[in-house]
Design a protein that fits this description.
This protein is of the alpha+beta class. The chain is about 15% helix and about 35% strand. The strands form 11 sheets. It has an 8-stranded parallel barrel with strand order 25-26-27-28-29-30-31-33. A 6-stranded antiparallel beta sheet has the order 4-3-5-10-7-8. A 5-stranded antiparallel beta sheet has the order 1-2-11-6-9, with no helix packed on it.
């Protein structure tokens, strides 16, 4: 039988088995009030059972191998990053207890999951509360009718097993299984803002007719009445500035029928609006929606409001609030080393700190809906967001696949509607023709996106011949890797000559901080080659004004368990920052120099500590007018830079240690960087260290290089 056919048998067992084995850690005590009229509790303490049996359900449920875990949690945190493409794609169980008071039973109790990959079913006291398919959007179940006063047993079966019915079918990243985002219990008054609209906030905020004098703000609230009688309600909306002061207020009455949901509209005007203006000024208002019954507030929801306009001009590129605003940024996955997708808000804060430090103005959240906290961070930081549906690489003609793709699209849009940072809904990435009809699927998805949200643009990311479907979405981006997977750097400007208004949605090259070469070549994974790649790309992209956005692949190294390259199997190393977030690669500083104004100087190849040449080329990235290089206390000259690159062609080293200092001045501020290089006669021209066991075995076959028969060295390579 299939893994889902025995649900009824499992449900029957759950009452008997779980009632006696709820985790004490899962009993959270009293619920704490989150907003007026609603109470919210995070369920973080669970017990976990890895795997289950397709035949012996009873044996599984009676197993003694349950272990305490904290949610967020994944069972693939280690096997999903170690290479071999053999991470566990299985079904597992989570369980916990929930204390329910008689008062709670007079209200509505909703359990909301922020994310579980990829199929999940919730059981409450042995009965199924609902199922969800899709690994990235939030989902919620109203469990009121399944509860009783006292201790209740919650159990969740989660599976990351492959299927042909839901995207993504395949992708170049690990699909971590588990309840990897937080779980909340919401206790709501029978009259409340709906929590069941694709697990969204139930509130949609839209600003229009924006001018210096005023902006119109419409607020649509879904009010749900779960009582036995029709109920008069009043929906009060307050727009507050960043200091918490009310700047607009409106109220609208509604009569909500028993068991019905009513959409209530409020119209407001904000005078002299303070615009959300990207990184220059990411000003945020808040919209507080309160549902009242008999004059008393029974529910309240707060959502962000950023008042802005945006568009794409075919010649000027991206326009924010009527002015050209250059979008240059990064792609990002959501995993951390040894933790997979089960990460905290604090770790996401660290990720955003890197985004801000490098000077990015935009981000592409690849290739799926990301953690809700990160969208909040983008709002606050002024980062323009391209966010994506997980339709990646391949599709099928299976009707269930289409339904699940469209379901995840609606989840993405409804759950992120109110984020001013989001400007682009992407329908997918690098989809080919095998197994389905991309034109049909994307045409349908594009129509849904515009039906759901007529205010934003739709987009797609293309990967080349046989994987491009222009003209369906409002705009699109192209993923290009000239000089990495094939071709050479000179192919990029030739390619750009024929391109119109679009984005460069991916470009990048891999590197290890342990790999270095005096003569870098394509796909050797040295830091030196990664730098040459980006030095060739950025000036060409910057000069093409019709390219409305550029997105480096990728900000952080990430898990791709099927890969075998660089210093670690199971890793894509195209990041500008290492997987553990501890080291910024040299290429990170190239973009920091080009994208930020804060004075900086960085010496390249400082980790290439032992050199076998008496005279070497020295490269410095800096955003100061002039850099002086000092070796062993003596100046070897000052240089001006081009695109923030400063070069000294032939710098002499003495045998032994050499102290090198690069120094510049900007606006009266002195900045410098230093390193020590050891010149040792006969030292190797190439260094490949820091490899795990798998990659050490690969290195015995020879140094990392481009595929056999294609070892071209792009123009501009140092030490030809």
């Amino acid at each position: 039988m299939t893994i889902w056919n025995w649900r009824a048998a499992a449900a029957a067992l759950m009452v008997a088995v779980l009632a006696g084995c709820q985790s004490e850690a899962g009993r959270g005590g009293k619920l704490e009030s989150d907003t007026a009229g609603r109470e919210v509790k995070t369920l973080s303490s669970w017990e976990f059972l890895k795997g289950d049996s397709r035949e012996e359900v009873g044996a599984v449920m009676k197993a003694a191998a349950w272990e305490p875990v904290k949610v967020p949690h994944t069972w693939n945190n280690l096997d999903g990053e170690d290479g071999g493409n053999n991470f566990a794609k299985i079904a597992c169980w989570y369980r916990t207890g929930l204390e329910v008071t008689p008062e709670m039973l007079s209200k509505r109790v909703v359990i909301r999951f922020a994310g579980a990959n990829r199929r999940a079913e919730l059981f409450v006291n042995g009965r199924s509360a609902g199922r969800h398919v899709g690994g990235f959007g939030a989902f919620a179940f109203d469990v009121t009718s399944l509860l009783h006063a006292g201790e209740n047993a919650l159990a969740v079966r989660v599976s990351n097993e492959a299927d042909k019915e839901s995207p993504p079918l395949s992708a170049d990243f690990t699909f971590f299984g588990g309840i990897y985002r937080k779980v909340e219990v919401m206790v709501l008054d029978p009259l409340h803002v709906s929590a069941m609209d694709f697990a969204s906030s139930g509130v949609r905020v839209r600003a229009s007719e924006i001018s210096d004098a005023s902006a119109k703000v419409s607020v649509r609230t879904l009010v749900k009445n779960d009582s036995a009688n029709g109920t008069p309600a009043l929906v009060a909306v307050d727009v507050r500035d960043a200091s918490g002061n009310s700047v607009a207020h409106a109220e609208a009455p509604a009569l909500v029928g028993a068991g019905q949901t009513e959409a209530v509209e409020n119209a407001l005007t904000v005078d002299q609006p303070h615009l959300w203006n990207g990184r220059k000024d990411p000003y945020l208002y808040s919209v507080v929606v309160q549902v009242k019954r008999d004059g008393r507030g029974v529910d309240e929801v707060t959502q962000p409001l950023g008042i802005r306009t945006f568009a794409i001009d075919k010649e000027k590129g991206f326009m924010l609030n009527g002015q050209p605003y250059h979008l240059h940024g990064v792609n990002m996955h959501q995993d951390w080393i040894d933790e997979g997708w089960a990460i905290s808000d604090e770790q996401l804060d660290e990720d955003m700190a890197f985004v801000k430090e490098i000077g990015a103005t935009c981000i592409r959240l690849a290739h799926y809906q990301h953690h809700p906290h990160f969208y909040d961070l983008c709002d606050r930081a002024g980062i323009v967001v391209w966010t994506e549906v997980p339709v990646v690489n391949s599709i099928t003609s299976n009707e269930a696949f289409t339904q699940h793709a469209e379901q995840q699209e609606r989840e993405l849009i409804r759950q992120n509607w109110n984020h001013p940072s989001v400007c682009f809904w992407s329908m997918g990435n690098e989809v080919g023709t095998g197994g389905g009809n991309p034109t049909k699927l994307f045409t349908e998805m594009n129509a849904i996106a515009h039906e759901e949200d007529p205010t934003r643009m739709t987009t797609l990311a293309f990967a080349g011949k046989g994987r491009e479907w222009p003209g369906i979405t409002d705009t699109w981006g192209k993923n290009r890797y000239f000089g990495w997977y094939s071709g050479e750097f000179a192919d990029l400007p030739r390619f750009l000559q024929g391109e119109g208004s679009e984005a460069m949605s991916e470009y990048g090259a891999g590197s290890s901080v342990f790999f270095h070469s005096e003569h870098p070549v394509r796909m050797d994974h040295t830091e030196e080659y990664q730098c040459l790649f980006h030095e060739a790309y950025w000036p060409a992209l910057k000069a093409k004004s019709s390219i409305w956005g550029t997105y480096i692949w990728v900000l952080f190294d990430f898990a791709a368990d099927q890969r075998k390259e660089g210093d670690h199997a199971g890793r894509n190393d195209k990041g500008l920052v290492t997987y553990d977030r501890k080291t910024r690669k040299d290429a990170f500083y190239y973009y920091k120099a080009n994208w930020t104004d804060e004075p900086m100087v960085h010496i390249n190849s400082s980790r290439f500590t032992v050199r076998g040449l008496e005279r070497i080329a020295v490269k410095v990235y800096a955003n100061v007018p002039e850099v002086e290089l000092v070796v062993n206390g003596e100046s070897v000259g000052k240089r001006s830079g081009e695109n923030c690159v400063f070069l000294w062609d032939s710098v002499g080293l003495k045998e032994g240690e050499n102290k090198v200092v690069a120094r510049g001045v900007k606006e009266g501020k002195v900045v410098e960087d230093s390193c020590v290089w050891t010149y040792r006669v006969g030292a190797p021209m190439e260094v490949y260290e820091g490899q795990d066991e798998t990659m050490r075995e690969e290195l015995k076959k020879g140094p990392p290089r481009a595929p056999k028969g294609d070892r071209s060295i792009p123009a501009g390579t140092v030490g030809k």
